[in-house]
Amino acid sequence: AGTLYIVATPIGNLSDLTVRAQQVLASVDVIACEDTRHTSKLLQHLGLHKPLLSVHEHNERDRIEQVAQLLRKGQSMALVSDAGTPLISDPGYPLVQGLRQLGLPVTPIPGVSAIITALSAAGLPTDRFTFEGFLPHKAGSKREKLEAQAQEPRTLVYYEAKHRILETLQMMAEVFGPERPACVARELTKTFETFYHGTLPEILAQISADDDQQKGEFVVMIAGNPNPAPSSEVDSEKLFRLLLAELP
Ligand code: SAM
Q1: Which residues of the chain fall short of a pLDDT of 70?
Q2: Which residues lie closer than 8 Å to 42 by C-beta, 6 or more apart?
Q3: What is the pLDDT of residue 232?
Q4: What sign does the dihedral 144-146-152-158 (CA atoms) show?
Q5: Å from CA of 10 to ligand 1 middle
Q6: Helix or strand run (H / E) with residue 40
Q7: How far apart are the CA of 11 and the centre of ligand 1, in A?
Q8: How open is the CA angle 22-23-28, to the nearest 5 degrees?
Q9: How far apart are CA 119 and CA 126, in angstroms?
Q10: What separation in angstroms does the CA of 158 have from each of 4, 93, 116, 168?
Protein backbone atom coordinates (compact mmCIF):
# COMPACT_ATOMS: atom_id res chain seq x y z
CA ALA A 1 0.00 0.00 0.00
CA GLY A 2 0.99 3.61 -0.42
CA THR A 3 1.79 5.83 2.55
CA LEU A 4 -0.01 8.84 3.99
CA TYR A 5 2.66 11.43 4.89
CA ILE A 6 1.73 13.98 7.55
CA VAL A 7 3.61 17.03 6.32
CA ALA A 8 4.26 20.12 8.47
CA THR A 9 4.20 23.42 6.55
CA PRO A 10 5.38 26.92 7.63
CA ILE A 11 3.45 29.11 10.13
CA GLY A 12 4.47 32.29 8.30
CA ASN A 13 7.96 32.26 6.84
CA LEU A 14 7.92 30.07 3.71
CA SER A 15 11.64 29.31 4.10
CA ASP A 16 10.72 27.17 7.11
CA LEU A 17 9.42 24.41 4.82
CA THR A 18 11.92 21.57 5.16
CA VAL A 19 13.77 20.06 2.19
CA ARG A 20 12.16 16.72 2.97
CA ALA A 21 8.65 18.25 3.07
CA GLN A 22 9.29 19.75 -0.35
CA GLN A 23 10.51 16.41 -1.72
CA VAL A 24 7.52 14.54 -0.34
CA LEU A 25 5.01 17.09 -1.66
CA ALA A 26 6.68 16.79 -5.08
CA SER A 27 6.55 12.99 -5.03
CA VAL A 28 3.02 12.15 -3.77
CA ASP A 29 0.06 11.42 -6.06
CA VAL A 30 -2.55 13.39 -4.08
CA ILE A 31 -2.39 16.10 -1.41
CA ALA A 32 -5.13 16.14 1.20
CA CYS A 33 -5.51 19.62 2.65
CA GLU A 34 -7.65 21.72 4.94
CA ASP A 35 -8.33 24.52 2.45
CA THR A 36 -7.60 23.92 -1.24
CA ARG A 37 -7.17 27.65 -1.99
CA HIS A 38 -4.63 28.07 0.78
CA THR A 39 -2.63 24.97 -0.22
CA SER A 40 -2.76 25.91 -3.93
CA LYS A 41 -0.83 29.06 -3.05
CA LEU A 42 1.89 27.06 -1.27
CA LEU A 43 2.13 24.63 -4.19
CA GLN A 44 2.28 27.50 -6.67
CA HIS A 45 5.18 28.93 -4.67
CA LEU A 46 6.92 25.53 -4.96
CA GLY A 47 6.07 25.20 -8.66
CA LEU A 48 4.02 22.05 -8.06
CA HIS A 49 0.71 20.94 -9.55
CA LYS A 50 -1.05 18.13 -7.69
CA PRO A 51 -4.60 16.84 -7.34
CA LEU A 52 -6.00 18.18 -4.04
CA LEU A 53 -8.53 16.54 -1.75
CA SER A 54 -10.18 18.68 0.91
CA VAL A 55 -10.16 17.23 4.41
CA HIS A 56 -11.72 19.39 7.10
CA GLU A 57 -13.54 18.78 10.36
CA HIS A 58 -16.92 18.39 8.61
CA ASN A 59 -15.99 15.74 6.03
CA GLU A 60 -12.98 14.09 7.61
CA ARG A 61 -14.69 10.91 8.83
CA ASP A 62 -16.24 10.32 5.38
CA ARG A 63 -12.81 10.64 3.77
CA ILE A 64 -11.21 7.74 5.67
CA GLU A 65 -12.51 5.04 3.30
CA GLN A 66 -11.65 7.12 0.21
CA VAL A 67 -8.08 7.72 1.41
CA ALA A 68 -7.74 4.05 2.43
CA GLN A 69 -8.76 2.97 -1.08
CA LEU A 70 -6.22 5.26 -2.74
CA LEU A 71 -3.47 3.94 -0.46
CA ARG A 72 -4.48 0.32 -1.13
CA LYS A 73 -4.21 1.04 -4.87
CA GLY A 74 -0.58 1.98 -4.19
CA GLN A 75 -1.03 5.74 -4.41
CA SER A 76 0.89 7.87 -1.92
CA MET A 77 -0.63 10.92 -0.25
CA ALA A 78 0.35 13.90 1.85
CA LEU A 79 -1.83 15.58 4.48
CA VAL A 80 -1.15 19.26 5.11
CA SER A 81 -3.06 21.89 7.08
CA ASP A 82 -3.17 25.65 6.49
CA ALA A 83 -0.18 26.20 8.76
CA GLY A 84 2.20 24.23 10.95
CA THR A 85 1.76 20.60 11.91
CA PRO A 86 -1.49 18.85 10.93
CA LEU A 87 -3.54 17.45 13.87
CA ILE A 88 -2.19 20.15 16.22
CA SER A 89 -5.36 22.26 16.64
CA ASP A 90 -5.98 21.29 13.01
CA PRO A 91 -7.79 18.49 11.11
CA GLY A 92 -6.33 15.01 10.69
CA TYR A 93 -6.90 13.09 13.91
CA PRO A 94 -9.90 10.95 12.81
CA LEU A 95 -8.16 10.22 9.49
CA VAL A 96 -4.87 9.10 11.08
CA GLN A 97 -6.69 7.09 13.74
CA GLY A 98 -8.86 5.43 11.06
CA LEU A 99 -5.88 4.52 8.85
CA ARG A 100 -3.95 3.14 11.84
CA GLN A 101 -6.93 0.93 12.69
CA LEU A 102 -6.94 -0.33 9.09
CA GLY A 103 -3.21 -1.09 9.38
CA LEU A 104 -2.25 1.40 6.66
CA PRO A 105 1.11 3.24 6.82
CA VAL A 106 1.26 6.81 8.15
CA THR A 107 4.62 8.62 8.27
CA PRO A 108 5.35 12.05 9.81
CA ILE A 109 7.40 14.65 7.95
CA PRO A 110 8.18 16.95 10.88
CA GLY A 111 8.54 20.71 10.78
CA VAL A 112 7.17 23.81 12.45
CA SER A 113 4.49 24.03 15.10
CA ALA A 114 3.57 27.31 16.79
CA ILE A 115 3.66 25.70 20.28
CA ILE A 116 7.29 24.58 20.11
CA THR A 117 8.38 27.69 18.20
CA ALA A 118 6.86 29.95 20.88
CA LEU A 119 8.19 27.95 23.84
CA SER A 120 11.70 27.77 22.39
CA ALA A 121 12.17 31.55 22.75
CA ALA A 122 9.77 32.46 25.58
CA GLY A 123 12.11 32.16 28.55
CA LEU A 124 9.58 30.17 30.60
CA PRO A 125 10.24 26.64 31.94
CA THR A 126 10.06 24.12 29.09
CA ASP A 127 11.01 20.92 30.95
CA ARG A 128 7.32 20.21 31.47
CA PHE A 129 4.41 21.95 29.78
CA THR A 130 0.79 21.33 28.96
CA PHE A 131 -0.73 22.37 25.64
CA GLU A 132 -4.34 23.45 26.02
CA GLY A 133 -5.01 24.51 22.41
CA PHE A 134 -7.91 26.98 22.02
CA LEU A 135 -10.05 27.80 25.06
CA PRO A 136 -13.86 27.61 24.78
CA HIS A 137 -15.38 30.76 23.24
CA LYS A 138 -18.15 31.24 25.81
CA ALA A 139 -17.06 33.30 28.83
CA GLY A 140 -18.54 30.90 31.39
CA SER A 141 -16.92 27.75 30.01
CA LYS A 142 -13.67 29.60 29.43
CA ARG A 143 -13.47 30.75 33.05
CA GLU A 144 -14.34 27.24 34.27
CA LYS A 145 -11.55 25.74 32.18
CA LEU A 146 -9.01 28.32 33.41
CA GLU A 147 -10.05 27.77 37.03
CA ALA A 148 -9.48 24.04 36.59
CA GLN A 149 -5.93 24.83 35.40
CA ALA A 150 -5.00 27.29 38.14
CA GLN A 151 -3.16 24.66 40.24
CA GLU A 152 -1.25 23.20 37.28
CA PRO A 153 2.50 23.20 38.09
CA ARG A 154 3.59 22.82 34.42
CA THR A 155 3.91 25.73 31.98
CA LEU A 156 0.54 26.28 30.27
CA VAL A 157 0.40 26.92 26.52
CA TYR A 158 -2.69 28.22 24.66
CA TYR A 159 -3.57 29.28 21.12
CA GLU A 160 -5.72 32.39 20.77
CA ALA A 161 -7.34 34.38 17.98
CA LYS A 162 -6.85 38.13 17.60
CA HIS A 163 -10.48 39.07 18.30
CA ARG A 164 -10.38 37.28 21.66
CA ILE A 165 -6.83 37.98 22.86
CA LEU A 166 -7.61 40.94 25.16
CA GLU A 167 -10.65 39.35 26.76
CA THR A 168 -8.74 36.08 27.32
CA LEU A 169 -5.68 37.79 28.85
CA GLN A 170 -7.97 39.79 31.14
CA MET A 171 -9.68 36.61 32.35
CA MET A 172 -6.33 34.84 32.77
CA ALA A 173 -5.07 37.71 34.95
CA GLU A 174 -8.20 37.40 37.10
CA VAL A 175 -7.99 33.61 37.46
CA PHE A 176 -4.21 33.12 37.72
CA GLY A 177 -3.55 36.32 39.67
CA PRO A 178 -1.24 39.27 38.96
CA GLU A 179 2.09 37.58 39.76
CA ARG A 180 2.58 34.69 37.35
CA PRO A 181 5.39 35.13 34.82
CA ALA A 182 3.95 34.85 31.32
CA CYS A 183 4.86 35.38 27.68
CA VAL A 184 2.77 36.06 24.59
CA ALA A 185 4.24 35.34 21.15
CA ARG A 186 2.64 37.17 18.22
CA GLU A 187 3.17 36.63 14.48
CA LEU A 188 5.95 34.06 14.90
CA THR A 189 8.40 33.83 11.97
CA LYS A 190 6.66 36.79 10.27
CA THR A 191 7.63 40.45 9.76
CA PHE A 192 5.92 41.66 12.93
CA GLU A 193 7.05 38.85 15.23
CA THR A 194 6.80 40.17 18.81
CA PHE A 195 7.33 38.63 22.26
CA TYR A 196 5.59 40.25 25.22
CA HIS A 197 7.04 39.41 28.64
CA GLY A 198 6.04 40.06 32.22
CA THR A 199 3.07 39.32 34.43
CA LEU A 200 -0.35 38.88 32.83
CA PRO A 201 -1.51 42.45 33.74
CA GLU A 202 1.76 43.87 32.31
CA ILE A 203 1.35 41.96 29.04
CA LEU A 204 -2.32 42.95 28.83
CA ALA A 205 -1.31 46.62 29.23
CA GLN A 206 1.30 46.34 26.45
CA ILE A 207 -1.10 44.71 23.98
CA SER A 208 -4.07 46.97 24.86
CA ALA A 209 -1.99 50.13 24.42
CA ASP A 210 -1.85 49.88 20.62
CA ASP A 211 -4.36 48.44 18.11
CA ASP A 212 -1.49 47.20 15.92
CA GLN A 213 -0.39 44.87 18.73
CA GLN A 214 -3.78 43.12 18.55
CA LYS A 215 -3.28 41.99 14.95
CA GLY A 216 -2.17 38.55 13.81
CA GLU A 217 -1.81 35.20 15.56
CA PHE A 218 -1.02 34.56 19.20
CA VAL A 219 0.44 31.90 21.49
CA VAL A 220 -0.08 32.56 25.21
CA MET A 221 2.27 30.90 27.72
CA ILE A 222 1.95 31.09 31.50
CA ALA A 223 4.38 29.70 34.09
CA GLY A 224 2.87 26.90 36.17
CA ASN A 225 1.74 27.32 39.76
CA PRO A 226 4.88 27.03 41.97
CA ASN A 227 2.79 26.15 45.07
CA PRO A 228 -0.24 24.19 43.92
CA ALA A 229 -2.86 23.80 46.66
CA PRO A 230 -3.49 20.19 47.67
CA SER A 231 -6.49 18.77 45.87
CA SER A 232 -9.66 19.20 47.90
CA GLU A 233 -11.26 16.21 46.24
CA VAL A 234 -11.37 13.06 48.29
CA ASP A 235 -9.08 10.37 46.93
CA SER A 236 -11.64 7.58 47.12
CA GLU A 237 -9.15 4.79 46.53
CA LYS A 238 -6.91 6.02 49.36
CA LEU A 239 -9.93 6.38 51.64
CA PHE A 240 -11.04 2.85 50.77
CA ARG A 241 -7.59 1.46 51.63
CA LEU A 242 -7.58 3.33 54.96
CA LEU A 243 -11.04 2.05 55.85
CA LEU A 244 -10.13 -1.48 54.81
CA ALA A 245 -7.09 -1.42 57.14
CA GLU A 246 -9.37 -0.44 60.04
CA LEU A 247 -11.88 -3.22 59.45
CA PRO A 248 -11.68 -6.28 61.71
N1 SAM B 1 -1.28 23.44 13.23
C2 SAM B 1 -0.78 24.70 13.73
C3 SAM B 1 0.51 24.46 14.51
O4 SAM B 1 1.14 23.40 14.34
O5 SAM B 1 0.93 25.33 15.26
C6 SAM B 1 -1.83 25.45 14.54
C7 SAM B 1 -3.10 25.74 13.79
S8 SAM B 1 -4.29 26.62 14.71
C9 SAM B 1 -5.71 26.50 13.70
C10 SAM B 1 -3.85 28.29 14.49
C11 SAM B 1 -3.36 28.96 15.77
O12 SAM B 1 -1.99 28.63 15.98
C13 SAM B 1 -3.40 30.47 15.76
O14 SAM B 1 -4.67 30.97 16.17
C15 SAM B 1 -2.32 30.83 16.75
O16 SAM B 1 -2.80 30.71 18.08
C17 SAM B 1 -1.28 29.74 16.49
N18 SAM B 1 -0.34 30.19 15.44
C19 SAM B 1 -0.22 29.71 14.19
N20 SAM B 1 0.73 30.39 13.52
C21 SAM B 1 1.21 31.32 14.38
C22 SAM B 1 2.20 32.35 14.28
N23 SAM B 1 2.87 32.56 13.15
N24 SAM B 1 2.44 33.12 15.37
C25 SAM B 1 1.75 32.93 16.53
N26 SAM B 1 0.81 31.99 16.67
C27 SAM B 1 0.53 31.19 15.61
Answers
A1: 232-235
A2: 9, 14, 17, 80
A3: 63
A4: positive
A5: 10
A6: helix 36-46
A7: 7
A8: 105
A9: 7
A10: 28, 19, 12, 10
